[in-house]
């Protein structure tokens, strides 16, 4: 009988290659000790491979660790000396070479050291899971299954779990729960079939795009434009993604796909690696790691942007990359709703536009292939359509899964056109279309809304020809579902107030990029006023959103237009209005919890700083970046960073030189954060910078952020939350600290490390942070500090170089160092 499942307190990773080491790094990000083991090489130190991997992790770009300190949790070792360490491990992950005999030999040795009941999983994607432990002890087989991570594990959310017939359901559930809550994974069950779900469907899609490119005479640039953002796929498209992951890796996956397709009699065994990629492998054109692949760098332009040449797959020569001009893409570009855009692209006339001619076979063949991967038997990887859609969204970063895309296109219209052209149609699609429906309806879809279910929708199960609730783990919620079940209390173009239930309301930001313009400022101001209906009707609030980023900061376009029209009074009112909003967040009689994620920049940080608490997602890129556009924080950001400075010391009393030495180091750190426009690379780093407090818990799984924020808000209410009062006697650091910071700025300018305008912006930041030209320790009010910020902000708005920076950032998305 299987032993009781352990709590996961210590993990071992066997294999310190790229995948194994990065799995170890992400487990360390979750705060767990990890043992990382590999073989002993001749004439090398015993732990050479594990130590080398650890060194590479510290230097990895993008960063493998949330903070460099997480590396201390990894203990390097080797298979010869350190297998005894496995006796203390609750979970052991095998990630060695894709060779059955190597894996079996290692696991035989592991079996001698693992404790009974510990869980042992494999990261393999090319070998049958059960065959690896055939003949091993019963307890080991009961605690053995597949855990297929995607690279890089920190950033790729998908984890496919592949149980065997003997796997203990309790052991599988233990790892699924741990990976969901502690590692932030979207856990998708898969059957033990070749390439599992995501790689099976994703590799077909990539190789089919290449096949169609050759068949239709398209270029690499055109395929990348077609298979990127217009479909809700990553903007890298097909070939730029190939360069990122490595052409050799792409070739390996493709070769494996072709071999497994032949073995399993896959209906698309014609989708194979083309000869021009074989030539690239021979020439060592392997992508970014060799500086040459489908693309290669060709210097930089005047704005510092990379110039690239692209491969002509027919001549195998390179030429300057150009932006393809495809009429169908230009016509679809203004369509913001992805489903509507996909429908237009798919059903455009293929006779008049080559984009439409590509999309019709590309998407319909994807629909058929994905539908054929769903079966009641173990011959196919997925039991339901939900698993395929979830795997593609989490594993390949598609915004919609193939079945959601087909719903957008219209299953009936799409299928009837396919039948008219004698294209193959999956029997699962036929089962969907045979589902009873009213004659006035457009026909059944794979998904349909159902506000009575926790997930808010049902899916069609072709194996039973019935609709079933889309399963959702407890603790996972979304604003979209809440709006279906509870409704929207009120909204404008930039924000909505959504009833979260249990007395909690969510303020959802939903402007473009969640740029903070007058619509959002007005909405939050009216909602959080002490006399508002919302404050009377709800016990707490959560400010968050469901776009890719929490907020990119203030609406720079609105600001620049006002500057160009010299509407200085209006700009002063805008800044004052923003300050008033952040003050209402801080002093609201109900607790306000901000749940930031993704990019949280400028004004987004200021909203967060003023909240009663923050519940961030682990992947948080947070920074007061106003200096990059020639400004300083004007919505209370400088004030709040000064208050954190004051909190860090026990006294502001000056020493013999007139400096508050107890707080000056903290003040200097916060000044550099603002002047350098420092952005965190994770929520953990945002905490070390000072944007988050030690009491602010971090959510690892993005899907759980909303619920975690709600629970935090409820806990504040239950604890008898009382709003703070405005501080009326903040001891200002004053002139001496200001002089010291200005001297540091002067030194950097003299050394030509910064421009003259950088120096001007930095001096204004120092002015606001020090409380202006006052005697050290002078008591000032929060409003006084806000007035200093507004003075600095308005002064910098009048600078030509600031206006140039704003215009450049709006045009390029990058800062200008003028």
UniProtKB/TrEMBL annotation:
Residues 507-638 form the Enoyl-CoA hydratase/isomerase domain. It catalyses: a (3S)-3-hydroxyacyl-CoA + NAD(+) = a 3-oxoacyl-CoA + NADH + H(+). InterPro entries: 3-OHacyl-CoA_DH_NAD-bd, 3HC_DH_C, 6-PGluconate_DH-like_C_sf, ClpP/crotonase-like_dom_sf, ECH_dom, NAD(P)-bd_dom_sf. GO terms for molecular function: (3S)-3-hydroxyacyl-CoA dehydrogenase (NAD+) activity; NAD+ binding. Residues 11-192 form the 3-hydroxyacyl-CoA dehydrogenase NAD binding domain. Residues 196-296, 380-416 form the 3-hydroxyacyl-CoA dehydrogenase C-terminal domain. GO terms for biological process: fatty acid metabolic process. It comes from the Bacteria. Gene3D superfamilies: 1.10.1040.50, 2-enoyl-CoA Hydratase, Chain A, domain 1 (3.90.226.10), NAD(P)-binding Rossmann-like Domain (3.40.50.720). The keyword Thylakoid does not apply. Keywords: NAD, Oxidoreductase. It holds the Pfam family 3HCDH_N. PANTHER family: 3-HYDROXYACYL-COA DEHYDROGENASE FAMILY PROTEIN, 3-HYDROXYACYL-COA DEHYDROGENASE-RELATED. This is 3-hydroxyacyl-CoA dehydrogenase NAD-binding protein.
